[in-house]
Amino acid sequence: MQYRSKTLKPKQKKIQATALKELCDRTNVQLIINDDIELSKHLDAFGVHLGKYDDNVDKARKLLGPDKCIGVSCYNSLNRVKEAYEKQVDYIALGAFFPTKTKPNAPRATLDILRQARSIGNIPMVAIGGITLENIETLKNEQINCIALVSSLFNSDNIELTAKQFCTILKSWNL
């Protein structure tokens, strides 16, 4: 589970993230904090996810320690993939693979970019951006390790059913 808030004030973010951390702990779910190393450290979260304009991996590793998970958004940039691999991050996120209302101006990643990224090194990869029940099969044979979902779940008429449908698909992929 990733906590991401771009608009709330720090105090509000801390309140929300603390409540989410408590829920994640009760349900054995690992929590990643987006963009905020200090909040991740404060909560003793599983890790942090960093984008292009966030703090750097070296700072995150120094503050969080060697055992915390650090992920990096690489968008559609093989240079960012190479940098992330050299910094020994725990995973990278590539995308948007499909149009998305969550980030309408997000750079588009292609399956070719994903394949080239795979050739850079053995690093877990997350596919993100516009993934739906209708297009997820496009990613099936691409050796991704995880998918990120926002709109497909939260715009669904039945979030629980949609989540179960995604889980069934992903279990069949043996991720």
Automatic annotation (TrEMBL):
This is Thiamine-phosphate synthase. It catalyses: 2-(2-carboxy-4-methylthiazol-5-yl)ethyl phosphate + 4-amino-2-methyl-5-(diphosphooxymethyl)pyrimidine + 2 H(+) = thiamine phosphate + CO2 + diphosphate; 2-[(2R,5Z)-2-carboxy-4-methylthiazol-5(2H)-ylidene]ethyl phosphate + 4-amino-2-methyl-5-(diphosphooxymethyl)pyrimidine + 2 H(+) = thiamine phosphate + CO2 + diphosphate; 4-methyl-5-(2-phosphooxyethyl)-thiazole + 4-amino-2-methyl-5-(diphosphooxymethyl)pyrimidine + H(+) = thiamine phosphate + diphosphate. It is an enzyme of class 2 (transferase). Its EC number is 2.5.1.3. SUPFAM superfamilies: Thiamin phosphate synthase. Pathway: Cofactor biosynthesis; thiamine diphosphate biosynthesis; thiamine phosphate from 4-amino-2-methyl-5-diphosphomethylpyrimidine and 4-methyl-5-(2-phosphoethyl)-thiazole: step 1/1. The lineage of its organism: Bacteria, Pseudomonadati, Pseudomonadota, Betaproteobacteria, Nitrosomonadales. Residues 1-152 form the Thiamine phosphate synthase/TenI domain. Belongs to the thiamine-phosphate synthase family. It comes from the Bacteria. GO terms for biological process: thiamine biosynthetic process; thiamine diphosphate biosynthetic process. CDD domains: TMP_TenI. Keywords: Magnesium, Metal-binding, Thiamine biosynthesis, Transferase. GO terms for molecular function: metal ion binding; thiamine-phosphate diphosphorylase activity. Its cofactor is Mg(2+). PANTHER family: THIAMINE-PHOSPHATE PYROPHOSPHORYLASE, THIAMINE-PHOSPHATE SYNTHASE. GO terms for cellular component: cytoplasm.
